[in-house]
Design a protein that fits this description.
This protein is an alpha/beta fold. It has helices spanning 4-10, 12-19, 27-35, 52-57, 71-84, 117-120, 126-140, 167-175, 192-203, 205-214, and strands at residues 42-46, 63-68, 89-93, 106-112, 141-155, 179-184, 187-188, 218-219, 221-230. The protein has a single domain (4-188, 218-230), classed as Vaccinia Virus protein VP39 (Rossmann fold), CATH 3.40.50. The N and C termini lie far apart (42 Å).
């Protein structure tokens, strides 16, 4: 199993193969729609990866800009956007904490499975890094702009758990006024072989073994959805 940084730097196609299987029940778009009507908004997707949220929002929003620190992830994102035939998008390599955009230029910022890395990869500076990020969000969002973050609450679990390595980010979100709920975003694979291979590649041998032992074509996944209005 490669570590996360290696995956993001080198394995865009494999990553897309995994995330294409997640949330087969469509709970993520429903959760976003419960928070905000995205139609005709200017939106940013931070840590866009291969474009999971970008492609979900692009057909409805006025414009969307996808940012990620990984050129490899954005390579796949760009290919998928080009194939969509849409023209209201832009893709750029950028850091969450310093976006190449004018002040107050977005109505909505979404970020899936990404902002928490500011804490996970630098736990001693977790609060400082996340504070810097929030200050940047206050700069780029318009008045009453909306932030929506998604983060894992446990792969292979029927009920949500707070992951130990993500705990500093969870605590920071709680302390900074983000409201939250959790949803199921289960993976549905085409075969047991695919399920075991992708689970083992991304989540480790223990996860791969559980998939095989339980004959999981559907791999349970719990996801937290955090939201905040920026005034």
């Amino acid at each position: 199993m490669p570590d996360n940084k290696t995956v993001y730097a080198q394995h865009g196609n494999e990553y897309q193969a995994l995330i294409a299987r997640e949330d087969y029940q469509g709970n993520i778009p429903r959760a976003i729609d419960e928070i905000i009507n995205v139609d005709d908004l200017d939106a940013f997707d931070l840590g866009a990866g291969t474009g999971r949220l970008t492609l979900m929002l692009a057909p409805r929003v006025k414009s969307i800009r996808a940012f990620d620190a990984s050129a490899e992830m954005l390579r796949v994102c760009r290919e998928r956007l080009l194939a969509s035939g849409l023209s209201n998008w832009q893709v750029d390599v950028a850091d969450h904490r310093q976006l190449p955009v004018p002040d107050h230029s977005a109505d909505l910022v979404v970020s899936g499975w990404s902002v928490s890395y500011l804490a996970v990869w630098d736990p001693e500076q977790a609060d400082r890094e996340l504070d810097t990020w929030l200050t940047e969000m206050q700069r780029v969002l318009r008045k009453e702009g909306t932030l929506i973050l998604l983060e894992s609450l446990g792969t292979g679990n029927e009920e949500p758990i707070r992951l130990e390595h993500v705990e500093p980010a969870y605590r920071w979100l709680d302390a900074n006024g983000f409201l939250s709920k959790w949803i199921r975003t289960d993976y549905q694979f085409e075969s047991l072989a695919e399920a075991e291979y992708l689970a083992r590649f991304f989540f480790g041998d223990e996860s791969g073994d559980r998939v095989r032992q339980n004959n999981w074509i559907i791999l349970p996944e719990c996801t937290g959805v955090w939201r905040k209005k920026v005034k």
